[in-house]
Design a protein that fits this description.
The protein has 674 residues and is α+β, with helices and mostly antiparallel strands. Helix 1 (5-26) packs antiparallel against helix 2 (35-51), helix 12 packs across helix 13 and helix 16 (515-521) packs across helix 17 (529-539). The protein is elongated and about 90 Å long. It starts with a helix and ends with a helix.
Amino acid sequence: MKPTPDIVDRLNKLKETVNYHRYLYHVEDRQEISDEALDSLKDELFKIEQQYPELITPDSPSQRVEGKPLDSFKKITHKIQQWSFNDAFTEEDLFEFDSRVKRFLAKEIKNSNSKLKPTYTCELKIDGLKIVLDYEKGILKTAATRGDGKVGEDVTNNIKTIDSIPLRLNKDIDLIVEGEVWIGKKNFEIINKKREKTKEPLYANPRNLAAGTLRQLDPKVVAERKLDVFVYDIARMEGGEPDSQFAELEMLASLGLKANKNFRHCKNINEVIVYWKEWQTKKDKEDYWIDGVVVKVNEKELQDVLGYTGKAPRFGIAFKFPAEQVTTVVEDIVLQVGRTGVLTPVAHLTPVSVAGSIVSRATLHNEDEIKRLDVRIGDTVILQKAGDVIPQIVSVLKEMRTGKEKNFKFPSKVEACGGDGTIEKIPGQVAYRCVNKNSFEQQKRKFQHFVSKKAFNIDGMGASIVDVLLEENLISSYDDIFSLKKGDLLLLPRFAEKSVDNLLEAIENSREIELAKFLVGLSIDQVGEETTIDLANHFGSLEKIQNASLEELENVYGIGDVVAKSIYDWFKDTNNRLLLRRLLKEVKIKEFRSPKPTSLKLEGKKFVLTGTMEIMGRDEAKEKIRSLGGSVSSSVSKNIDYVVAGENPGSKYEKAVDLGIDILGEKEFLKLIG
């Protein structure tokens, strides 16, 4: 099958973009996008070329090792060509690598006497700068960067400042080894703090700092920054190399070279995956950055049989950790109806694996966010996901545009709104909403919210079950959930007796609920979790909230005029009062007791949390603030003491800056709460 013009255009754009960012990274020691995003672009390029080999050209980024060396250093021609490893991103990729190794070996050694079967040695993939060390009679003669694989840069004088690199080996032999120069996390922070004080630009990441340091013309600067090294491979050795990769790594230490101790011999590819998963959870505890695992066939005899392709060894692969940033394409932007009728634009994406899961959707929040990102249908974007956080589009790669991309505009009607589908802009906000308040789509969202962990927490009643119950007319009001019978549920498709029993037990367990969570479940317009806690704290009972005047609601700390009016109107509505009467026959609201703080460290302090927090989840952070006597608000005002800003904080951050409110980063916040 011949490639279409669109595929050819996509390929050319990928090549241009990868070359541009590779040049910035490897030649100028700076970067505009993350390593993970660049890896994602390279992976897409590689896959297109594998599908259409006729498109592979000698100048493709997939056919080269690394960028050209800088002119400011003397060149060194490597005695042994330097290679880079191909990448694996998923377990499926690794199984395919294992299959390729075994297929190739079966073909190449069928007529030989070798009875060896491949096993693997795993090493941590250190995020640093590759270095090649050449020893003659045990004395360090030269040190060179990898460069383009054939010619590198002479950085011998700078390498000699690194204490972990011996100037003389324990044996007087000729030896060429390869390693990774890196800078520790603590040193990285110290250097950036010094630059912050002198108002110099901060270094974006430790690899760029290590690379920039190694290319300093003054060795004194290099010495001050305390670089380190791990040596991981013998390229050539007088008298012959050990017969296995594992033995080679053990030998490095006996020669006086520093090797990372966390390598492991694995009998099969499943053990490799266990090692890979283990280090995903352990990597952050080390002082050096780790971005994956290097997997090599352990037996040197088999490595020699497998050999090399044009750019990489067949016997090894770099098994990357799940990326938190990848690139993908916005295929469409669709408006999603929320439980209160607010319309949220959602980007439909070409499915991509990020942080260990396949993602095909990302919220764009509102019209302002679309304009801020300048995201269009057809754009190539950087997608980010940290831990369990909802995926978000970080930025648009505008250099990938072809001119076929389309701007998104909010329509005047949305079918999912029901009725005639008319939508309107909410006064004083950037959001749009359905004019009709009772569409089926809104009802689904409200019921899904009612049973969620934030509200009644009915375990096992997910969105798909709620949808079926509504479609089959088994529920039309919240109280109907508590009158569901086993016989009704068993008639539904895919409902087995055991699952029905579990669901009914979960419903029964949810009949007793805290006041704040009960209020959350009601989906009162403008009322979020923080507001329900404020209401519960102030009034103490549902009856007092129901009977509160508008003025009394406006006097509650944290509740403004608009929210107070929304609460007042909801409780005065006849249908809502009937709903509450029916619901209270089914459930019991626990006596509200304001949680006692464990200390008064934050007494009287008011916080707003915004953006993505990676070390401590936002819900956990809120609980911690309250336990220390502080309070949390959902909106920024002059009464707020601190705004805690994670990644991509948005408009709340900007408002805090305008009002002169103290803004804390996540680490500063963690330090504050101890």
